[in-house]
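Anyone opening a protein record will find just a pair of labelled lines. With that in mind, the following record should read easily:
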Amino acid sequence: MKKPLNITNIRALLLLAAFSTGINVLLTPLFSPLLAEDENRAEIVVTGDRREKPVEDTVTRTEVISRQQIEAQGSRNLAEILRSRNGIEIKPAIRGQEVRLQGLSPEYVLILVDGDRVTGRLDGAIDLTRFKAEEIERVEIIKGPSSALYGADALGGVINIITRDPKEPARLSTELQYGSGRALHYGSGNETHASATTGVKGERISTLWTTGWHRSDGYDLDPETNDLKLIRSLVGHIPGLRNEDLPVTEGTTGSSYQDLNVSNRTKVKITDAWDITGRASYHYLNQEKVDYSPPRTILDRSNETHDVMAGLRTDYRFGTYNRLSIAYSHARFLDTLTQDQRASDELDSEEVQDDRVQEARAQLDIAMGSRHMLSVGVEGLWEEYKSPRISEGGYGYRQRASVFAQDEYKPFDDYFYIVPGLRYESDSQFGSQTTPKLSMRWDPSSDVKLRFGVGRGYRAPSFKDLYFAFQNPGVGYQVVGNENLKPEHSVGYNGGIEYEPKKWLWIGLDGYYNSITNLIDFRRTADRKNDLTTYQTVNVSKAYTRGAEFLVEIRPFEKLRFAVGYTLTDTLDRLQDIPLEGRSLHRGIYRISYGGKTGLGISLQGSVNGKQAFYYEKESLATLQGGRLVVDRNVILRAAEQNRDFKLIDLDPDTPDYGYEMKNANHILDLRLSYKFLENYEAFVGVDNMLDHYDAQLDPIRPRFFYFGVRTNYSAPVPTADRRIESISTEEKKPTER
């Protein structure tokens, strides 16, 4: 028997129904002859419920960005694929671009490639520009704590990159692109991108190769650079003008780079029920940057990176829904940082970071009668880390072993699922962790889906958190790790409603709340070591993120699609009683795309971000130093000039108090125009960051950038019989209860 709706659900459904009715009245007379099925409706995904399912039937909501969407918006890498998506923030990182989910930092977001862990975090973040668009078939995203399914580091969610595989008997695709920005301050950011994909698909064996070459000039956002270059050109022509008398500001904000990627995915079909898939990739990256440290220190910095991933997986299917999967993967990230001080060798250095991860997994999915679908699995993970910036001889090692289970339970004949899950994980450094989760889905009607989830997550301290050992004598400080750190824990709640009254209209509303304890942060210690101020990692903070996401998608006819979304992200550092840094309370996104298999194509996408909180350390009128109060009367004047808060008395100067300023509201807009000839050729032009937003300190992104290029695509047609077989196979994977 169905349970009655409560008042809250009734109000929500009435509101959505009223909104939908108004849209229907306005648009149905215009567009009803042109209604089109969304190409993603039959997409088979694996991330949300950790087994193959059509995306529309997942219990845990899984967002999908398809290959067709990636090509239409002209994305070059994963950062560009994600940056105009609801509830996802892409930010500049120490290297490249990083991601935040539900207001949580990148160290709480797990990045996977075909289900395998990615290694090579820098300052806690995986650089999203490492993953090139030509290698990606689709991207699957789940938000909220996912440690019950995926273990450590998945407090904020999971992003799973699914690589391309051949779908036709033969394929050859190429793309060539060139772009340039304005000659702003220093350089123009000239870029060249070239890629090729070729593959074949036989009855038993299929393989696909992808290779790409990408290069870019650096750029600088310092407005003084050009003026100083002009003045320096006059040295020797104007009496008394000397180079040494001029200020030094030379530097680059964005690195120049040369980037090569090669990958292969091969699948061997042993029998109709048993197949083996192998995947391997190699990425080479060389970045160069100029760092300026006042008053006159200039460092030429380069990073040479070798990134290798390989994986092997076998799947055996028996019965209608039963499957046994076994997988092994190995990833290595080798990065060499070289710093060369101009006119001196005092600060010359070379540092090598070598990060390796091996992972083995086995999972069994088996139907237990008509109401239970049980998934159980075991995993082992081995991680090694080498770096001169950590103690313990510059080497760290740990291993994890885990078991997990989840049950898709359908108690009634209606479309109602309860999915409990549990994971037990043992870490060689931090002992055992148990992370439960519970997901539910109920479809009270054919056009309404209700989802709810609650789960625990955790993140073990990284090797840098534990053993960091870095000194900067020129500035007078050092940073050290803490071997007594505890893992960070979270509890998260997610709920949402999806309403799809017509094939051309989709409305989604989601809410979330994440509470995190034992947050790891740096704090200044009371004692000085080696005559340097010392900062150490400690478990000091508690925080929460909470918010809501609203998205409307309209597809009035096959070639045209609109999407508009709004995200509310409210965060709080409970210890300091201030918002988490760099998060926008309000954020909006919009996407407009038009195009088909031939003819004109248009892609317009943008994000509007409200002001974000940026921290500063509060000054004190009177500070306790050496047993006496030291008064600085200028504190009040400086605080008034900068519009900042200050403290009257600071009795504990080794524990800083922070205030925050709200800054950096922005609007990022990208436009791409294309024209397809005979389905095989495409020419395109575009402009990124059309409104030319950037900030050298708060948001050092590339200024306005223009590009153009061509794309070719040749493929042998799929035989009619094979199409019918694939169609039947897809239908078999769809549930039949509805």
User: Anything to note?
Assistant: The helical segments are 7-31, 67-72, 78-82, 147-150, 225-232, 463-467, 634-642, 720-733. The mean pLDDT is 86.
